[in-house]
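Task: sequence design from structure.
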């Protein structure tokens, strides 16, 4: 759409650049979608009156038939970019019933070359009959650079259908980081005083489409980005050209993809798959996405979880030689198809990830965590000799690392605080940097361009109740405090268990959902995870400090069941009338332990990941993912018509009378919901896209009723910095 508006306008605290079609607020630059920009210009040009939906149809969507919903959605996007979402007290755009929309703020032209408003009058723009458009379609041909005069646009999605949205998850690598977030204790060590704000440079927002983005990868020249995302109902592996803004969804195996990395000078995208049942990785030609990806087996390497390109034909891969081995890095030669160890560990609980190459190409830094310790390590290797040259212990709050220069590392904070850590590799000093916003990941290209993903927004969760069949709409939306983190069914009619995060502590309360009355049962400074209530006794199973504990809700007495050294799978625990059954991994082998509620005695059954009593018999899942009916003596009687992938990382087991439900996380940010009727032995599987109803953690069922937590869609931005960020001047 042509416009007679000046090139730069002041709109309260926002500057509108009509040439670049962007908004600037402080150091932040927000690139507007072409259609959003056109609507903004039209409202500005006709600010003396209301503009109806029909007029926007005719003047902005010229020659196209679109719904009123599409127009309203564009207005909503514009309001979000302007941070003008309070409809009762609008700042920039007000709406009138059956009248349309009116722009409220008087724009002031800014004289070119200065930051001062000018007295120049603002002419009204006459709508053009043929507005310019940039259509960036999912699955379109690879982007080619457009003319310099073409502004960078955000992507418009052509989506055949919308699927529901929920919380993030990642494949193998992100699952490990997520495990660290949910299972390790907060840092209790002394914190350094934050340094003054480290002058993060202005940045340009490259992608702000609602949804979660993670696992960012950047090509050597900074022309291409790749990431795992869930964008407006579409989840999977994406490619974006940084100059044209063109976005592509990469077609991958049915199970999804993880850990993208550019190799061979950015001409090939390497990624792994996790849900195929075998260890595999794939090479996709970036220049022609219509070509099928080349699938490569890793022979004796299993569970590839992270990649780092070291040149044309060499890649570092975080993997295992067997399931009982540590997850460490191996150097793989693409041409010879051979590998050799790179990082070593005698501890089977080790997981190495996040490797990055120094700017001079001589060193590799990576992160090492252990499931049995709250301590993380930075390991620095000399690339030529493959020798470990530095080992630096860290707080467990570390997210991802990147080299700032050859002597300094930057590390993000995994809990969403506006903090970065800068590590001086010469002195090994760790400096805490205060930032204006939290960052999830920072990434530097080989030609020293800097990119980042902002930490996802965190809004209050909602809790719903419905029938376990999911065949009907939710029957109830609960009115809970903003501090609520979990809501679970109890066996007392009308009452629920409520977990809250207070300013200084966590608490568990009995909660009357009708009156709002709450009776506190337990409080602690450590995060509380509610798992299950006993069928008839005042007893609840909790996860605390990475351990299982039983709380007597009548007396407040807490009984520890496991210790901090045990690797317990919370989501596979089951509390019956007589005993607690919990799954744990020991030395690479799974077992289910039975804890007798009366005597406290424990006994183990090796080779299973789930075990629960049912009608004088047992239900079980073995390590291959096959479900069984077992005798009272735990002898296999019959395989059941339900089998999951072997070694699936994240599962939620729920047994309700004669219904078995299993929620399994997929690597494409979605879930599989498996249901088995134990009487008819009819099994069904339903694919739930990223964000349906389910979180593996916040799911509770009693007597055919299901309570679940639905997080509002999270959103993170991908940005490009104008230089090296977070450098003291």
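Answer:
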């Amino acid at each position: 759409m042509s416009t007679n508006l000046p090139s730069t306008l002041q709109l309260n605290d926002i500057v509108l650049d009509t040439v670049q079609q962007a908004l600037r607020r402080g150091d932040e630059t927000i690139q507007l979608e072409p259609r959003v920009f056109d609507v903004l210009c039209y409202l500005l040009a006709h600010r003396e009156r209301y503009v109806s939906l029909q007029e926007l149809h005719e003047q902005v969507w010229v020659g196209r038939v679109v719904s009123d919903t599409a127009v309203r959605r564009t207005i909503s996007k514009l309001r979000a970019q302007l941070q003008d979402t309070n409809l009762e007290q609008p700042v920039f755009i007000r709406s009138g019933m059956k009248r349309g929309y009116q722009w409220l703020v008087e724009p002031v032209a800014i004289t070119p070359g200065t930051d001062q408003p000018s007295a120049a009058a603002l002419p009204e723009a006459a709508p053009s009959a043929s507005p310019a458009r940039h259509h960036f379609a999912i699955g379109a041909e690879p982007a080619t650079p457009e003319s310099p005069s073409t502004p960078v646009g955000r992507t418009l999605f052509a989506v055949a259908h919308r699927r529901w949205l929920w919380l993030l998850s990642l494949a193998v690598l992100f699952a490990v980081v997520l495990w660290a977030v949910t299972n390790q204790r907060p840092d209790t060590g002394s914190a350094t005083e934050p340094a003054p704000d480290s002058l993060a440079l202005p940045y340009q927002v490259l992608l702000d489409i609602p949804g979660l983005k993670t696992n960012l990868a950047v090509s050597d020249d900074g022309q291409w980005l790749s990431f795992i995302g869930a964008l407006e109902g579409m989840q999977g592996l994406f490619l974006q050209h940084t100059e044209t803004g063109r976005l592509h969804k990469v077609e991958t195996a049915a199970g999804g993809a993880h850990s993208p990395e550019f190799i061979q000078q950015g001409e090939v995208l390497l990624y792994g798959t996790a849900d195929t049942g075998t260890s595999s990785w794939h090479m996709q030609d970036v220049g022609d996405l219509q070509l099928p990806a080349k699938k490569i087996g890793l022979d004796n390497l299993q569970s590839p979880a992270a990649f780092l390109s070291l040149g044309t034909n060499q890649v570092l891969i975080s993997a295992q030689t067997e399931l009982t081995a540590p997850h460490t890095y191996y150097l793989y030669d693409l041409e010879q198809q051979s590998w050799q160890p790179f990082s070593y560990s005698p501890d089977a609980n080790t997981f190495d990830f996040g490797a990055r190459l120094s700017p001079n190409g001589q060193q590799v830094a990576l992160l090492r965590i252990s499931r049995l310790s709250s301590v993380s390590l930075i390991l620095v290797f000399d690339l030529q000799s493959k020798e470990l040259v530095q080992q630096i212990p860290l707080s467990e709050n570390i997210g991802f690392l990147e080299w700032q220069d050859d002597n300094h590392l930057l590390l993000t904070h995994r809990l969403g605080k506006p903090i970065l850590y800068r590590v001086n590799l010469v002195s090994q000093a760790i400096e805490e940097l205060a930032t204006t916003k939290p960052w999830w990941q920072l990434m530097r290209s080989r030609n020293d361009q800097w990119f980042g993903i902002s930490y996802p927004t965190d809004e209050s969760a909602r809790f719903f109740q419905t029938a376990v069949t999911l065949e009907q709409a939710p029957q109830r939306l609960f009115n809970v405090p903003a501090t609520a983190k979990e809501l679970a069914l109890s066996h007392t009619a009308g009452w629920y268990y409520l977990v809250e995060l207070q300013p200084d502590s966590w608490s568990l309360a009995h909660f009357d959902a009708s009156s709002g009355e709450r009776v506190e049962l337990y409080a602690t400074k450590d995060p509380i995870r509610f798992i299950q209530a006993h069928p008839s006794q005042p007893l609840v199973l909790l996860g605390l400090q990475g351990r299982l504990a039983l709380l007597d809700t009548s007396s407040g007495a807490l009984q520890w069941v496991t210790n901090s050294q045990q690797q317990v799978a919370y989501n596979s625990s089951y509390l019956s009338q007589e005993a607690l059954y919990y799954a744990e991994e020991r030395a690479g082998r799974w077992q289910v332990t039975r804890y007798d509620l009366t005597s406290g005695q424990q006994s183990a059954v090796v080779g299973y990941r789930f075990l629960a009593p049912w009608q004088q018999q047992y239900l079980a899942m073995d390590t291959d993912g096959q479900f069984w009916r077992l005798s009272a003596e735990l002898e296999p009687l019959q395989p059941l018509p339900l089998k999951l992938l072997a070694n699936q990382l994240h599962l939620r087991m729920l047994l309700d009378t004669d219904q078995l439900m299993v929620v399994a996380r997929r690597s494409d940010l979605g879930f599989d919901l498996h249901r088995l009727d134990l009487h008819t032995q009819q099994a069904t599987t339903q694919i739930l896209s990223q964000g349906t109803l389910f979180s593996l953690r916040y799911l509770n069922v009693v007597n055919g009723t299901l309570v679940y937590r639905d997080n509002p869609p999270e959103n993170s931005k991908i940005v490009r910095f104008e230089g090296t960020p977070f450098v003291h001047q």
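The chain is about 5% helix and 45% strand.
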